[in-house]
Amino acid sequence: MKVGDLVRIAECVALDGGIPLFPCKCAMCDNNSTRVGLVVGRVKDPDFLDLGPQYIALFDIGEVILDRSPAVTVISKTRT
């Protein structure tokens, strides 16, 4: 993942991987998000924290900080 990439966040699922029994109240579900966003920057973390690479992405619900989670998929890479 890098600045300029188009990303998608996976749909929410229950802990067992199935359909949730109750409505999810995360920001994406609660606002009927398209779950598609544009990576616009990289988070600069302090040297004493090793969180791995984190990125700032703009979604239809606002700004979200992403990491290299399996829930995040790059759907269109920027050309360099």
Strand percentage lies at 25-35%
Q: In total, how many beta strands?
A: 5
Quaternary state of the chains: single chain
Question: How many H/I helical runs?
Answer: 1
- The N- to C-terminal Cα distance equals 13 Å
Helix content: under 10%
How would a textbook summarize the main sheet? Answer: 5 strands, antiparallel
Total domains, how many?
A: 1
Rg on CA atoms, Å? 14 Å
Taking pLDDT < 50 over at least 5 consecutive residues as the criterion, the unreliable ranges are none
Order of helices and strands: EHEEEE
What's the quick description here?
The chain is mainly β.
Sum up the structure in keywords.
globular, 80 residues, mainly beta, 5-stranded antiparallel β-sheet
What does this molecule look like?
The chain has a five-stranded antiparallel β-sheet, with no helix packed on it. It is globular. The chain has 80 residues and is mainly beta. It starts with 5 loop residues before the first strand and ends with a strand. A hairpin with a 2-residue loop joins strand 3 (55-59) and strand 4 (62-66). The protein has one domain (6-76). The chain has one helix spanning 27-30, and strands at residues 6-9, 36-42, 55-59, 62-66, 72-76.
